[in-house]
Amino acid sequence: MSSVLEQLATSSIPTERSLPPYRLASRVLHPEDTVINVGDVAIGGNEILLIAGPCAVEHEGQVLAAAEAAKKAGATILRGGAFKPRTSPYDFQGLGEDGLKLLDKARQQTGLLVVTEVMSEAELPVVAEYADILQVGSRSMSHFRLLEALAKTDKPILLKRGFQATIREWLLSAEYLMALGNHKVILCERGIRTFDSEHTRNTLDLSAVPVLKAQTHLPVIVDPSHGTGRRDLVIPMSKAAVAAGADGLMIEVHPDPSKALCDGKQSLSPEELLSLVDAVKPLAMACGRRFGRG
Ligand code: PEP
Ligand code: MN
């Protein structure tokens, strides 16, 4: 164990309430919300963020069109995978660094920030060169050596929930990042595996949102695309996520979902993304918040 972790593990901090094991992530020692500022975007502030983009970067025309659609809908952050964690080794694995370069082009064209996944310590230097926010995918939430490496960067980390992880385990993964020096952690609920795979890809655990809001000061966003796996469920669950208190939505959008190389079934068209914004905005207002920049 590093000396920093040893000190944190053994330090006795007097508190009125007992301290959970995720002590730095906990609200006990840090009651006020954490707001992470990146460029002109405040993550965890009054504005509920729209993060949108394709599952994977496929080619220049696709990512630029998706980025334009995201911008038009009021998004501030473009999502898109260049290094893809695919279940099958035969499926499209992403464009790698070429994909990162296309994300950079889309960022320059639209002014959107870029969030993209980093899967390994080996890929971290190149991904960090291009990303404004580094994404830890569901399959990597418990990749502790990766978390330790990410803790040493100064970029915000979007930490997706492991599809098999409890909330405690998820917060302890956030704690790895924080204990070793990176406090810019954004939590993303993306569905967990339960028993019904007939109607939904995952079970989007929206109860996690108010639970996290009580337990931690970190921003919480929701990904209803992976959370349901179904395009027709993305808008209803986006509305529910905002009503539950989410600080942002991460939505997959593709200029032509029927041609997507991955996750087309859960991807919205640009028009559907505009419908999502129309549906979510009144709810955000009812919660005293703004939704996106549209
Ligand atoms: C993604 O958001 O690109 C992704 C692969 O999602 P998850 O890690 O939640 O499966
Ligand atoms: Mn996807």
Describe this structure in words.
The chain has 294 residues and is of the alpha/beta class. It has ten helices and eleven strands. It has helices at residues 3-10, 60-73, 97-110, 124-130, 144-151, 167-179, 208-215, 224-228, 231-244, 270-286; strands at residues 36-38, 41-43, 47-53, 77-79, 113-117, 133-136, 157-160, 185-189, 220-222, 248-252, 290-291. It has an eight-stranded parallel barrel, surrounded by six helices. Helix 4 links the parallel strand 5 (113-117) and strand 6. Helix 2 packs parallel to helix 3 (97-110) and helix 2 runs parallel beside helix 10. The model has no long low-confidence stretch (mean pLDDT 96). Manganese (II) ion binds next to loops. Residues 55, 81, 85, 117, 137-139, 160, 190, 226 line the site of phosphoenolpyruvate.
Please write out the topology.
Blueprint: H1 3-10, E1 36-38, E2 41-43, E3 47-53, H2 60-73, E4 77-79, H3 97-110, E5 113-117, H4 124-130, E6 133-136, H5 144-151, E7 157-160, H6 167-179, E8 185-189, H7 208-215, E9 220-222, H8 224-228, H9 231-244, E10 248-252, H10 270-286, E11 290-291
Parallel strand pairs: 3-4, 3-10, 3-11, 4-5, 5-6, 6-7, 7-8, 8-9, 9-10
Antiparallel strand pairs: 1-2
Helix pairs in contact: 2-3, 2-10, 5-6, 9-10
Bound molecules: phosphoenolpyruvate and manganese (II) ion.
How many β-strand runs?
A: 11
Radius of gyration: 18 Å
Give the names of the bound compounds: phosphoenolpyruvate, manganese (II) ion
Distance, first to last CA: 47 Å
Estimate the mean pLDDT confidence: 96
Tell me which CATH architecture applies here: Alpha-Beta Barrel
The CATH class assignment is: Alpha Beta
